[in-house]
Specification:
With 358 residues, the chain is of the alpha/beta class. It has two domains: 157 residues, 3-Layer(aba) Sandwich (Rossmann fold); 178 residues, 3-Layer(aba) Sandwich (Rossmann fold). 40% of the residues lie in helices and 15% in strands. A five-stranded parallel beta sheet has the order 9-8-7-10-13. A four-stranded parallel beta sheet has the order 2-1-5-6, with helices on both faces. Strands 3-4 form a two-stranded parallel sheet. Helix 6 crosses helix 7. The longest helix is centred in the last third of the chain and has 20 residues. It is globular. Bound molecules: phosphoric acid mono(formamide)ester. The site of phosphoric acid mono(formamide)ester has 8 residues, from helix 3. Phosphoric acid mono(formamide)ester (CP) binds next to helix 3.
Length: 358
């Protein structure tokens, strides 16, 4: 287990950029910090005096409170820069006089003042262009020497994936032989990003689980994510398959993770030059969504899973649409463990990339 590979690195496409051994190190460090937290051990020397700036272009409960608490438990400071109250950071071509400020300037200023910048962006602030938010984070990284932390963009939510791996490791003690199903589920909103399903299938494939991705037709994930999942599961000797059958996804699963995400027509797509190649079609997205209204997790689906099977959801969940109350509040549900593990996961990420050994 290597410990000196982390300092100064960005946490943006972490499922791709950090190798399996590095994910194992993060899990070990997070579980150690969790144990120490339970013992009420002082951890304030770990990032003493370091400052984390956060920018939320979208709403958040879990990510906001766990980053705020986490950096302070490690002895650092947390400052939230509301993009509506500062000058909204913008890329070239999206400037509005005296309302926006170029990312080149924002990133370099924050770099001089603090020690890391954490950003959440997807959907309307990213103009619904798939990949726009991810490349915005990379533009910050281009200008900032300090680490950039992805708090969920339109492609990935690696903090959630790490918390979920920790939760699975706690329950099963291993990843090998664990059957995980990431399934689409119905919600009255068509606007949820693909970040969680994409991060979870990538991380699970990287760690060697038997991964099933289940969704109705029209809700396909990014083809590049799918090829990486296939490559990772070959390397880790796990497995990866895609199905279009809700109940089948639950059969024999140790981990079920049914949640909503936006269908293919929800987003605008551009080529490498920024030219629009496919425009979003909300009418078609609504049609696809309503056609799959039956994809709701009930006790009937949970009965198909393994007897030791667990129900996961990153939250917030749309109760009565994605899932019945008796499932999310039932004995197989680990949703609150996942939320708590966000704290320990992010403390491990910050401890290693903002501090750590060179
Ligand atoms: N799971 C998650 O990222 O929750 P929030 O949207 O509340 O931050």
């Amino acid at each position: 287990m290597r410990t000196n590979n982390f300092r100064g690195r960005d946490w943006i496409d972490a499922e791709i950029d950090f190798n399996r051994e590095e994910w194992e190190t993060l899990i070990h460090v997070a579980l150690d910090l969790k144990r120490r937290h339970a013992m009420d051990d002082d951890q304030t020397e770990i990032l003493k005096g370091k400052t984390l700036f956060s920018m939320f272009f979208n709403q958040s409960l879990r990510t906001r409170c766990t980053f705020a608490a986490g950096i302070q438990q490690l002895g650092g400071f947390y400052t939230e820069l509301d993009p509506g109250k500062t000058y909204t950071p913008a890329r070239k071509g999206f400037d509005i006089p005296y309302k926006t400020e170029r990312i080149a300037d924002v990133a370099r200023v924050l770099d001089q003042v603090g020690d890391a910048i954490a950003i959440r962006m997807y959907g309307p602030p990213a103009h619904w262009i798939y990949g726009f938010a991810n490349s915005t984070l990379k533009e910050f990284a281009h200008y900032a020497g300090n680490p950039i932390i992805n708090m969920e963009c339109d492609k990935f939510h690696p903090c959630q994936a790490l918390a979920d791996l920790i939760t699975i490791r706690e329950r099963f003690g291993t990843f090998k032989g664990v059957n995980l199903t990431m399934s689409w589920a119905y919600s009255g909103s068509i606007e949820k990003p693909r970040a969680v399903p994409q991060s979870v299938v990538l991380a699970a494939a990287k760690m060697g689980m038997n991964v099933t991705l289940s969704h109705p037709k029209g809700f396909e994930l990014d083809p590049e994510v799918i090829s990486s999942c296939e490559k990772f599961s070959d390397q880790s000797e796990g497995s990866f398959r895609i199905i279009n059958d809700f109940d089948e996804g639950f059969r024999g699963a140790h981990v079920v993770y049914p949640k909503s995400w936006g269908s293919v027509p929800c987003f605008n797509y551009t080529d490498k030059t920024g030219k629009t190649v496919k425009e979003q079609d909300h009418k078609e997205a609504e049609r696809l969504n309503e056609a799959a209204k039956g994809w709701k997790t009930t006790a009937k689906q949970m009965a198909l899973a393994d007897k030791q099977g667990i129900y996961m959801h990153c939250l917030p969940a749309d109760r009565g649409q994605e899932v019945d109350d008796d499932v999310i509040d039932g004995p197989q549900s680990v949703v609150i463990d996942e939320a708590e593990n966000r704290l320990h996961a992010q403390k491990a990420i910050m401890a290693l990339i903002m501090g750590g050994r060179r």
